[in-house]
């Protein structure tokens, strides 16, 4: 039933049961890190609920959902804001031809790979026009054997006006309509929206699940294991890591560490300014990689259960670091990085956060 979903057995079992028992809610929030399968599960549900043969994969309904072109499937995502746009305009009105072309390309990429993240230039929030257009789309009647299926990507980017417009839709939902809100930041949603949706938490994928998926796509086991180790439970990260120079990624982490160790004010400020311009997901991945560095140190010191080292190619560097900073509070460093990641997820001022993080890490490393 969920053959295109990697892992997430708990979520798949839940929906298999509620579909069998005909207990579907009208609104769900899928919460979890980017690239763990929220979209994949949503797409499979759309097939199941619109396929006459329970997600056969070959009928016209299944094929159209797979292409993200089914008439009952409605997608909402952040769009560029156009200042001249009125609240009742079509959400695409006023966008350039290049904007429209990019949107088509992103939707096509999402259809081919559910673990792809839709990224549209200058699209920072879900517009009120998108919600109003959605409201008119789902108001039409639908056959008794089908469902209107609404998927809202990056639902936490709804602004105050679009969130309130969506809340009205939730309070009086059209018949046979299911809303799926996808987010990695559920705390940023209105509490009134949270209270009207059933929260479904998605787990991080295991390294074994990521490796199995990549091998099934034709990648070698060796390269799959290498990227799975540093992908933080995200298939999206793993796929992206296959296409980048991992040495550069490790070198960026080591440069971060060098700046932290020296703690020269100008270099700290400069690096914080540079990193603050990164995509939030890229910055979080860097900080998670730094967590792996300190965790590797703890493993080598025998203070954590042994596992394969993330920084195995830099084992000599790890050993030198441990020798030089014998009194470093490595566990505290991991906790500082975890706290920083949580703060980034709450949209704090990134530049200031990174500056403070590097200063605090320095104090932790050179502790006496």
Using brief descriptors, characterize the structure shown.
368 residues, alpha/beta, Rossmann fold, 2 domains, two-stranded antiparallel ribbon, 16 helices, globular
Walk me through what this model shows.
With 368 residues, the chain is an alpha/beta fold. The chain has two domains: 9-203, Rossmann fold (3-Layer(aba) Sandwich); 244-365. It contains 16 helices and seven strands. Helix 8 (207-216) packs antiparallel against helix 9. The radius of gyration is 23 Å and the shape is globular. The model has no long low-confidence stretch (mean pLDDT 88).
The largest sheet, given as strand count, sense and whether it forms a barrel, is: 5 strands, parallel
Secondary-structure element sequence? Answer: HEHHEEHEHEHEHEHHHHHHHHH
| Rg of Cα set | 23 Å
CATH class term of the largest domain:
Alpha Beta
Shape: globular
Q: If you average the pLDDT, what whole number results?
A: 88
Itemize the secondary structure elements and their pairings.
Layout: H1 9-20, E1 27-31, H2 38-50, H3 60-66, E2 73-76, E3 79-80, H4 97-112, E4 123-125, H5 128-137, E5 148-152, H6 160-171, E6 177-183, H7 191-194, E7 198-201, H8 207-216, H9 221-229, H10 235-241, H11 246-262, H12 265-275, H13 280-300, H14 315-324, H15 330-345, H16 350-365
Parallel strand pairs: 1-6, 1-7, 2-5, 5-6
Antiparallel strand pairs: 3-4
Helix pairs in contact: 2-3, 5-6, 8-9, 11-13, 11-16, 12-16, 13-14, 13-15, 15-16
């Amino acid at each position: 039933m969920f053959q295109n979903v990697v892992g997430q057995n708990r979520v798949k079992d839940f929906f298999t049961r509620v579909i069998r028992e005909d207990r579907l809610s009208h609104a769900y929030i899928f919460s979890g890190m980017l690239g763990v399968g929220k979209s994949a599960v949503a797409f499979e549900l759309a097939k199941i609920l619109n396929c006459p043969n329970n997600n056969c994969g070959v009928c016209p309904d299944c094929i159209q959902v797979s292409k993200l072109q089914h008439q009952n499937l409605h997608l909402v995502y952040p769009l560029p804001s156009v200042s001249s746009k009125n609240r009742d305009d079509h959400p695409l009105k006023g966008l350039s031809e290049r904007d429209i072309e990019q949107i088509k390309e992103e939707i096509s990429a999402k259809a081919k790979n559910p673990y792809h993240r839709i990224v549209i230039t200058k699209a920072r929030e879900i517009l009120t026009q998108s919600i109003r257009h959605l409201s008119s789309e789902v108001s039409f009647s639908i056959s008794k054997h089908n469902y209107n299926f609404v998927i809202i990507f990056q639902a936490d980017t709804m602004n105050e006006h679009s969130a309130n417009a969506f809340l009205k839709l939730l309070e009086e939902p059209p018949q046979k309509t299911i809303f799926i809100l996808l987010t990695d930041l559920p705390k940023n949603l209105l509490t009134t929206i949270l209270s009207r949706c059933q929260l479904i938490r998605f787990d991080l994928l295991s390294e074994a699940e990521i490796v199995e998926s990549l091998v099934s796509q034709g990648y070698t086991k060796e390269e799959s294991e290498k990227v799975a180790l540093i992908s933080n439970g995200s298939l999206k990260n793993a796929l992206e890591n296959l296409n980048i120079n991992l040495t550069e990624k490790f070198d960026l982490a080591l440069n971060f560490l060098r700046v932290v160790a020296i703690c020269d004010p100008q270099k700290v400020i400069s690096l914080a300014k540079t990193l603050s311009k990164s995509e939030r997901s890229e910055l979080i991945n860097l900080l998670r990689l730094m967590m792996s560095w300190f965790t590797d140190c703890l493993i080598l010191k025998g203070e954590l259960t042994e596992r394969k080292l993330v920084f195995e190619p830099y084992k000599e560097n790890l050993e030198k670091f441990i020798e030089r900073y014998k009194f470093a509070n490595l566990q505290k460093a991991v906790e500082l990085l975890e706290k920083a990641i949580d703060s980034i997820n709450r949209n704090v001022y990134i530049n200031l956060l990174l500056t403070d993080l590097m200063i605090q890490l320095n104090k932790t490393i050179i502790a006496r």
